[in-house]
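Now for today's protein:

——
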Amino acid sequence: MNSFDELCKKLSQNIDEDDSRSRARTEQEQIRFDYAVKYLLTELWKKHHTHEECETSIQKNKNYYSALAKYRDPNLTYRMAIQAFDGLQKLDMIYVTKNGFYDRTTMEGDLTRFKATDKLRELFNDLEGHPAIVLKPNLDVQTIILRNRIDGRKTLVSYKEDKDTELWRANLKKINGCFARHILDLRIQDKEFIKLQERLLGDTKKEPIDYTRKVLVRIFTNNSFEQGGRFYRGWWQNVPSEYRQFITIDSKKTQEHDYSQLNPNMIYSLYNKELGSEDAYSRVAGEDHRDVVKQAFNAMFQASTTLEGKPEGIVLEDIEMSWKELKQAILEAHKPIKDLFFTGLGNKLQFADSCIAESVMLQFAKMDAPALPVHDSFIMHHGFGSYGELEEAMRRAYYERFNTDINVKKELIVEHKPELPIKDDGSVSLEVDDILEAESEYSGWRDRDRMWLNSK
């Protein structure tokens, strides 16, 4: 078996040998070319271990490589990226699945997409290790991202550094460094993992699970460092709620703690209003419709207009209310703050909850204990939940910002016991061979665990 670095060097040399260029590359050009080859192969290798239908993309717009220096990879240049891409095509290592385009009239387009050929996939299968173990996270990438929305499109915005951005980046590097020192995984059967990946592939708002994605970024919105600021791009954030209970940290079971009614609590606290003891969402249309009311409540605070039309993703069939009726019911149930809806306050609240999340994660990062953020909850090694340390940290972080308390909910702990096989007659088999075969259904999780231990 070969290492990934050896494969990258070999294919880079093969491209050079196959190349008919009249002029040899300079030393600096060769370094950048080798980097481009490794960059493309890295993305392909990660996709290989994600799902066979996953595509890789390349930016063929020359201007992309020189614009917004704050966000781009300085080692990746247009000329060398294209040479590496063309060279891998000539070696029959990749093939294009969809050509990129750009429509100057609509100002919309898409990137060129490609996949590994069977030839390259065979080379990947012969490699030692797994990309989540072999590839070390780059802790120096740009993690403080500022966006604006122009004509309905999200656009990156450059900015000048100040003490806040520098502190946020330094804190996030400590948090990401903590994550990088641990193996974060999902203990489900191999066949169930494939099923989950296919589900995520069909979801336009999520991405398939790529275990190498451990580096969080903090994204601010509306061209303001006082709006947004939440943490994104951790692979566990794509895991559907019913699977999150199977997330493991260093092969150990985890527990999730969730802030109770975070947005309503923050809003009422900020404006010195009394929320009351009745659930902020259930009071509108009953416990059975709590989830849809929560979606609508948050959408109404996020919006800066009165939302005449129902936001995408909110399903009203079961609640038997029109969108107009649901809006009015929420306003009636929350009269003390009704004038705050539709004012765009949601993005400012996101900044507040992102600061709370940073405080929690940073506290545990100093203890070298990953606290994985998901919306308004955290996933940690079960010991931090069982002994109350996570709940205490979450309560403290909230109190320090709002000078008031908030409830924290505990989610289910899953016992990771050996899977005992069931015989045809419905009884449990205690035969060693049958037990080993049942446990083999978790071979992917076990192999990654073994590789991690061997790499330490």
In short: The chain has a mean pLDDT of 91. DSSP finds 16 helices and 15 strands in the chain.
